[in-house]
Amino acid sequence: VKPCSADEITGQAVLPEGLRKVSMELQSGVISGIREIDTVSEVNRIVFPGFIDLHVHARGYVRPNVSNPEAVAAWEGMNRKETFESAGLAAINGGVTLFLAMPNDPTPPDNEKSYEEKRELAQSCPCPVVVMGAVTRSSEPWADIPYKVYLDPVGSRVSLENWKEFNDVIARYAGCSLFFHAEDPEMIRRQGTGGPRWKTRIPEAEYRAVDRILDCTAKYGFRTHICHVSTKKAVEIVKEYNKTASQRVTTEVTPHHLFFSISQEGVLAASGEPDNDETMFECNPPLRTENDRFFLLDALLRGDVDCLATDHAPHTLEDKRKGAPGMPHLDTVGLFVGWLMNECAFPAERIAQILSEKPAEILKRYLGPTPAGMIRKGFSGSFTILDLDSQSTVTGSEILHRGPLRTKSSWSPFSGITLPGSVYNTVIAGDQYFFDKECVQQERQENSHRDKSRFQ
Ligand SMILES: [Zn+2]
To answer: For the chain, what is the mean pLDDT?
Structure first.
């Protein structure tokens, strides 16, 4: 996919002061001027500051030593599932202009050398990436970068599997930026393994872990971000903590926890029955009840949850049948936003906060000299432009009338579901990526007779 460069973007855009009809001038990928204009030609298209996804498993792993053929074969297998290149294309297809790459690799980037190797590898991604460092049992911080802490009993090299391990390791990271997977590993293990995750990874495991993380945050002065909150109680605990905190603890929620829920009857989608069976929706933390789902939607809308982040996990259908947790989301971010706006009454201004402004604020120290996350003079010329008149149907491995999903995992939890909206254009520092120019032009002709007075 070859981008074409833009020196001007025109449309109704979400500025810090609200929705405005503007023309934005770009110079060297930076917004050099914004002026208000009287009319825009597109009736229901919105220009957002470029979306930033705080939670992506890109599967871009450093090639292991050639003398170990088994490890090389495993690495090649991983590359068939996703690479930085395919994850980047999926991101752009979904309107995401930058993402934070998770470090749960076979060789985790838990020291300077392995981290720099991974950063090098991330250069192959067509959109900018911030790479996270891994916290492991023996690791120590080596630079001011974001670090991921896994409190999870999964038995991987990055997981801290009991509170003693956690306490020993965490004291070394005083003052660091830490992103937490928060599930009490001891409590989960006591539930026993086997059976669906939503029965063993109980809600208490999440909010008890959050509670302890907040204690450590106060003690060691971390800049704390809690990944994928999934329960009402966890959100309430963080909210209470923030009332008196000197440094605000931030949170994110995933599309799957906002769209799907689970009960004895199985998985329920916001749109009705989902196309896929329960195994496809296994994730950590698991899907929760309809009550939690409604609470999370409301919390995200009113500001008690800070960000939307995908937790994009590019497992293949085969992996999923074997029980791999997580699901791919990057290709469908823009469509999910269409759903939040059309079906859940999220104003465009709130979308810009949860997907651009807040994530940019959290990653601020790691984004380089040009600020991002808002449409303002001097900020990055990255935009996500959504068409809200159209709708998109996900079927199997494609978005109908648009093209294939770009993630190599080739499936979506939204398969069989029609969502309002589509991504018209993703602009990264002045480079425009149209994935479906032909189809958008066709649609534009179809729409040309519609009422255009609404925004003029
Ligand atoms: Zn994750």
So the answer is: 92
